[in-house]
Design goal:
Elements (H helix, E strand, L loop, with lengths): L2 H20 L6 E4 L1 H10 L3 E4 L13 E2 L20 E4 L4 H12 L5 E4 L2 H7 L6
Parallel strand pairs: 1-5, 2-3, 2-4, 4-5
């Protein structure tokens, strides 16, 4: 292998590692199952946000669509009470974790992400709008 090939491979590997870390489950967000989220939605009025891009079909009861990488632009639409629980989902889960990071940085500590996202919701046979 030439040194250019090795250098290019190293750069590509570094990019995958760095961007992959952004989508891993952080310790400041709780992961919940579709069944748990459905049960909570039956008993409480929650703030549910779809953060998937491109916009997808929403889970019934979704309050807001905010692209996971544009959280800051929509902060005026977020709960005024920073301790309010914010439930997040995307298609599979990773974008929810990325959105949680932005929300956490804005001072929201009570974040929950749907494990498996809308795919898990669909698999559980639950409703969409």
């Amino acid at each position: 292998m030439s040194s250019k090939t090795i250098k290019l491979f190293s750069i590509v590997a570094f990019i995958f590692i760095v961007t992959g870390c952004m989508f891993q489950k952080p310790d400041y967000v709780k992961v919940i199952t579709a069944t748990e989220l459905n049960r909570i939605m039956q008993n409480e009025d929650i703030f549910l946000v779809d953060v998937h891009t491109p916009e997808q079909r929403h889970i019934k009861g979704t309050d807001l669509f905010i692209p996971y990488n544009e959280i800051e632009k929509y902060k005026d639409k977020l709960p005024k009470d920073k301790n309010a629980a914010i439930y997040l989902y995307c298609e599979g889960g990773p974008m929810g974790n990325a959105a949680a990071r932005s929300l956490y940085e804005l001072g929201y500590p009570n974040l929950l992400n749907l494990e498996g996202g809308a795919k898990a919701w669909r698999k559980a046979g639950l409703d969409f709008e």
